[in-house]
Design brief:
alpha/beta; globular; Maf protein; 167 residues; 21% strand; 5-stranded mixed β-sheet; single chain; 47% helix
């Protein structure tokens, strides 16, 4: 279902988290659960993947992750502020060490001059680490953008573990 290179990357991540005794959760909007889907495609992933939040609508972001309505109103769903609130909300609601959140415009519609198709905001929250946000401007069709998001999310999960070991 997923490209071999992405699956291999996910397997390495799961191995590293299992070795560290870490659990993770995802908070996904534009990916619609693809990050959790890839991870749970791998046998034994239940030792690492605790849960995934798919919060495609603003209401879901508020209800499931506690994203403040004011944050959504002031910055829009595709913003670093919302990605941060999603990640921190998931971390507060799940017994895990790390969360990656993703919100963006996968297209082909929905883009604006300020937030074009391919604009994706990510946040990584982890126990004992400062929340980290990044913005990517991805290209390709909807499927390519969403798969690129999955790859970035895996990198952010790996970075959380690396950063925690460095502290």
């Amino acid at each position: 279902m997923f490209p071999d290179d992405l699956r291999a990357k996910a397997e390495r991540l799961l191995d590293a988290y299992r070795d560290a005794g870490w659990m993770l959760a995802t908070a996904e909007s534009c990916t619609g659960g693809l990050i959790a889907g890839l991870l749970t495609e791998i046998p034994g992933s239940s030792a690492v993947v605790e849960r995934g939040f798919v919060t495609y609508t603003n209401q879901a972001k508020q209800d499931l992750l506690g994203v403040p309505n004011a944050t959504l109103s002031d910055h829009g769903a595709v913003s670093a502020q919302v990605a941060r609130a999603m990640a921190e909300g998931a971390l507060a609601r799940a017994p895990v060490q790390a969360v990656v959140a993703v919100t963006g415009v996968a297209g082909p519609n929905g883009g604006t001059p300020g937030k074009p198709v391919g604009r994706v905001e990510f946040a990584r929250a982890a126990q004992s680490l400062e929340t980290h946000t990044i913005r990517n401007n991805l290209s390709g069709d909807r499927g390519q953008i969403r798969l690129a998001c999955v790859s970035v999310a895996l990198d952010l999960f790996h970075r959380a573990l690396t950063d925690a070991r460095a502290t």
